[in-house]
Amino acid sequence: MKRVLLTGASGAIGTRLRVLLQPIYPELVLSDIRQPADLHSNETFVAADLTDMAAVEAICSGIDGIVHLGGHSVEGPWETILNANIIGCYNLFEAARRQGVKRIVFASSNHVMGFHPRKTRIGVEAVPKPDSRYGLSKLFGEGLGALYAHKHGIGVLSIRIGNVGDQPVDERRLAIWLKPEDLVQLIRIGLEKPDLVYEVVYGMSDNRRAWWDNARALELGYRPAGRSEDFAAAALEAQKKLPKDEIGDYFQGGSPFCSEEFDGDFAALKKLS
Questions:
Q1: Helix (H, G, I), strand (E, B) or coil at 206
Q2: Range of 138's domain?
Q3: 231 DSSP 8-state letter
Q4: Which pTM was predicted?
Q5: d(Cα 118, Cα 109) in Å, to the nearest integer?
Q6: Contact 186, 143 (CB under 8 A)
Q7: Series of mean pLDDT values for 10-residue runs along the chain (273 residues)
Q8: Which residues is 163 bridged to in the sheet?
Q9: Residue 67: which of 178, 184, 207, 173 has the closest Cα?
Q10: Radius of gyration (C-alpha) of the chain in whole angstroms
């Protein structure tokens, strides 16, 4: 990979990745709907709205690989999710196809699987149970990646990202924490591993309390350096200060993704799980 495009470069994760990816991919191109406030003179930024196919095709021109973080990163109204995460995601994959892009790393989310209970350990083959319109849009993106990988020959890695940060800050994040440098390692697998067609992995570090079986990522060469258990004492102490949420605390997606707008039969769901 010589010329790599990073969408969503102004977001929280994108801001971290700008620093970490630049030494690896010197021809890194940054894109978002707004320019980062701290853009450096050695960084290349091109503004683009993902709903504008012409603009998306322009930023994909001459690109070898894409790290697609762009879109709406939390739950939102249907119109917001539809435009940013579904139409925008389709435009990105289709523009990549038209411009001959070889690889795409798609930032999926743990919220694709959010309604699995925390007591259940799941692998990538488990049935998706999105916990929100946001999670549903990420499931769409995974399906889109599979289509463009198998039908159009673009190598695609979908990473179901847990929570990216310097350390896990509560009990839930002890299970799903992802050290930024470990995310970079997964991205490099997606962009560089020979013969990759389509893969789904969980974006988590070495978390002893994990709910996910990340065996496939390990088979692909992933060796996480972060250990969430190193921060367990502080995270569990912080957990004591958080309000209880019967639904959010039961399911992997947590609060507010699982509990907000919930009007289902919680007792019945618990029996099923």
A1: strand
A2: 4-272
A3: G
A4: 0.97
A5: 16
A6: no
A7: 96 96 96 94 95 98 98 97 98 98 98 98 98 98 98 98 98 98 98 98 98 98 98 98 97 98 97 89
A8: 177
A9: 184
A10: 18
Q: Which residues pair with 105 in a beta bridge?
A: 67, 157
227 residue type, one letter: R
Can you state the angle between helices 88-98 and 133-152, rounded to 10 degrees?
A: 20
CATH number of the domain that 131 lies in? 3.40.50.720
Helical H segments across 193-248, by residue range = 215-219, 232-239
Q: Which pLDDT score is estimated for 1?
A: 85
Query: Do residues 31 and 45 touch, judged by C-beta distance below 8 A?
Result: yes
By residue count, the chain amounts to 273
| DSSP designation for 113 | G
- Largest Cα–Cα distance of the chain, in whole Å? 57
What are the catalytic residues? 134
H and E: helices and strands count for the chain? 10, 9
The 10 Å Cβ neighbour count of residue 74 is 12
What is the domain count for the chain?
1
Residue 79 Cα distances to 72, 73, 86, 87, 109, angstroms = 11, 14, 10, 10, 19
